[in-house]
Amino acid sequence: MPKETYNAENITVLEGLEAVRVRPGMYIGSVSTKGLNHLIYEIVDNAVDEHLAGYCSEIHVYLEKDGSVTVEDNGRGIPVDLHEKGISAERLVFTTLHAGGKFDDSAYKTSGGLHGVGSSVVNALSVWMKVRIRRGGHIYEDAYERGIPTVELQNGLLPVVGRAKDTGTSIQFMPDDEIFDHTVFKAEEVKNRLHETAYLNPALTICFEDRRGSEVESITYHEPEGIVGFVKSINQKKDTVHDVIYVKGESDGITVEAAFQYVNEFHENVMGFCNNIFNAEGGTHLTGFKTIFTTVINSYARQLNILKEKDANFTGPDVRNGMTAVVSIKHPDPRFEGQTKTKLDNQDAAKVVSKVVGEEITRYFDRNLETLKSIIGCAEKAAKIRKTEEKAKTNMLTKQKFSFDSNGKLANCESRDASKCEIFIVEGDSAGGSAKMARNRLYQAIMPIRGKILNVEKASIDKALANAEIKTMINAFGCGFSEGYGNDFDITKLRYDKIIIMADADVDGAHICTLLLTLFYRFMPELITEGHVYIAMPPLYKVIPARGKEEYLYDDKALAKYRKTHKSSFTLQRYKGLGEMDAQQLWETTLDPETRYLKRVEIDDSFLADRVTEKLMGTDVVPRKAFIYEHAEEALLDF
Ligand code: TTJ
Fold this sequence. Notes:
Blueprint: H1 8-22, H2 24-28, H3 33-52, E1 58-63, E2 69-73, H4 89-95, H5 119-124, E3 126-135, E4 138-145, E5 148-149, E6 160-163, E7 168-175, H6 187-200, E8 205-210, E9 217-222, H7 226-234, E10 245-251, E11 254-262, E12 269-274, E13 277-278, H8 284-303, H9 316-319, E14 323-330, E15 336-337, E16 343-344, H10 347-367, H11 369-402, E17 422-427, H12 429-438, E18 444-449, H13 461-466, H14 468-477, E19 482-483, E20 485-487, E21 498-502, H15 507-523, H16 525-529, E22 533-536, E23 541-545, E24 551-553, H17 556-565, E25 570-574, H18 583-591, E26 598-603, H19 605-609, E27 627-629
Helix pairs in contact: 3-6, 6-7, 8-10, 12-18
Bound molecules: ligand TTJ.
Ligand TTJ binds at residues 43, 46-47, 50, 71, 73, 75-76, 78-79, 103-105, 119, 169, 171.
């Protein structure tokens, strides 16, 4: 280690970076793939800041063959001159937590939520990092290992390694496998995020290159239409009602941009960005946008006598029926709240967005009456369906009182403590019967389903509810359902902490799983996103050795391992299906929280992250690949 890392200044620096390594999640959210990708975004966001300051037009991102990443820009280059503390400014950027502000003369810091935590965090979480700066005719180089500098400064300055005609910064880093679960970057997610960044920065070009495979993949993202292009791309395959409308304005130092377009579909997709960072939980900018939009549309609808005096106003969801919108603001001092710190919290943002958007859309609609009328038409359609559904739901609720379980199949548990209760959805009447006998009736409810349930990929809620089993399930869960607009789903009313699908480990079983997951995902998505849905893993084999203990084996890997470790003879029983097990076996293998294997169902991150092409909300089928099941080996869950 070079000598200068021992002085007092550097000791505090090292302590700071050590804190990052001890609690990486505090700085990058998690050590999963999501956290791993944040490393790239963190570095890229610095280059985007330089673009916003007006000095960088191109950013290159390379996923290198050795697993590292290079991010390169043509900005001014990170300053290398002596800082007041007697070392190169570049050193401070990469070794001091939250450095950047001092050197950062752009008015808009990207520091929001999980982002903008500083390139020093990336440095601390990298096995190695190389910095190459082209500035003032020279090329400077610096390097680090797990945050610790390995290059000796000369009088506090970086060594010059060559001459440069242009300016820019190039950072290469290798994510630390001591920190992250997996260190292989997912190209799809990175590409989605870079594409989105290109839409939000219309003058910027981002070149992506994946050099890892046998064939190099190169893509250039340049979206001169900005958020208008963003909305167009989301709606590209849809039946649009009008051309994309774009408004822009500034007030109190906050810049507001919004683009929106209606499509002939029954859902809304409104996204908020602050300083080019997506706000997953929305926030004040979206509140401002939605409130003013509802007010303006209702006021026009009355002026045009589409809403009569006796009529109630359109609701917010009515007004946004079919709307795709991107609201992007630039705020000099963004604050965030919420579970993942991705909800914009600045009250002035709500005020300014509603002022700018209110003025600008009024100006637009005054001149484009036909567009306005078709947009009001979307709200009318929504209101009509809402009223019909409200009626249907009251009918259903009154009926429900008398027939909680209309076909008498649900064997409910006795406890009402939802945090302890589980419901098993069991394929087949015979397995259902065994499960009812085997269960712990205090906490475990059993709901047998016959063969294939209705495929709800395309069915409306009315059709789905006509299916007795679906109705029983929704009633049993207790939290209602949501469809399209107007959300009557309330996860807090969920009666079971775990909803466990129990199906045979064969093709039919897999199909039943997919059908059930599709049902949940369409009408009760929070069940999945909040981690309440599980798949039971019945064993494939039972081994009975001549001497010693019987064992259940859950897959072929386990069997191969058993064969290796147990040389003496044993009887092998192969289970073909749940129906073959008696109640005792079913309890031991699949129901007993102490011994069973469960897989939690999750939605693939890249699926959720892709806001550019609309896979998520489309009327298309819910793609199978959207669901991933946690590996069973890692998921001997619970208690
Ligand atoms: C700050 O103000 C003086 C001139 O240089 C400005 C600056 O910091 N520019 C800058 C930083 N350009 N590019 C970066 C940068 C680029 C990458 C790829 C990564 C990081 C951490 C910073």
